[in-house]
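Need tokens for this chain, all 307 residues.
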Amino acid sequence: MLRSLRFSRPDHRNVLTPTDFLRALHVRGARRIRRVHFRDNRSTIWSLTCDGTVLNVHAAYRAAPDPLLDAFATLATAKTTRSRAWRDATDRVRNWPALAHALEDARRRHADERAEPRGAGIVPCCGTPRQRNYLRRLYDYLNHTRFGGRLPDDIPLRLSRRMRTALGHMLPGADNAGDRRVAEIALNVDLLLPGNGAERLDTLLHEMAHAADYLETGARGHGASWRAWARRIGCRPTTLYDRPVRFRRRRSDPVSRVPPLPPALRLGSSAESGPELGPSAHATGSFAHPALQRSHDSVKRRSAPPG
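Here are the structure tokens for all 307 residues:
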């Protein structure tokens, strides 16, 4: 059972600058790191970019104590993400009490902007026609295998090169009659890079769960109804993503890669009858919002598509 973290706020009198943070890492042996950037975002809490030489951390870590700096040095120097030391450091970074407050503050600041339908002002998709086709087919596949076809087929999908640390978002909106609709689901185009297969799948499922939750209940956040959707369709029921994600070395670099589709689609099988899916089970209940239709009562978590 996922519980909300409630902690007292730390003392912020000793605040680190990027130079202080970098110097602390070098003292601890993480000399490969050349720069440290503090990011005031809502989800991603740390990442390594520029071939592992730039550490991006949430702004809350300006007040990081020595044990937390030790953990970041371990993350920066680890040769594998499967070691016990890496897992322990990840847990220490993720569960630092001040982080929960900082993330909530960031989400509140972005709440009004996120809630405003932008209509024609939505930024165009940066993807190529093949990338857009891939994203649509993956959405359709997940809609039928994880959501039982409950989501609308015509939700606008977009790849964004403007996201720096965010991995994706779902933009809620309303039609002319005032009925709820999804204005768009957008993903960071860097998720198409090699090695981001699991992150790409989890992020798309995360945002699709937001779409289902919003259409059914009107909820926009990561509350109990969204977590129920996340557990049901097999994405991580958390707002944090603490695994390393590969990003472009330079923001100006294009991303032209089209990842492979799930095996059921590559083999030409129907989404519901692929070899890894098993028999479908249909629910008997109905839902308040007409965009959500009856279908699967439960869906098991499945493995990510390759690369």
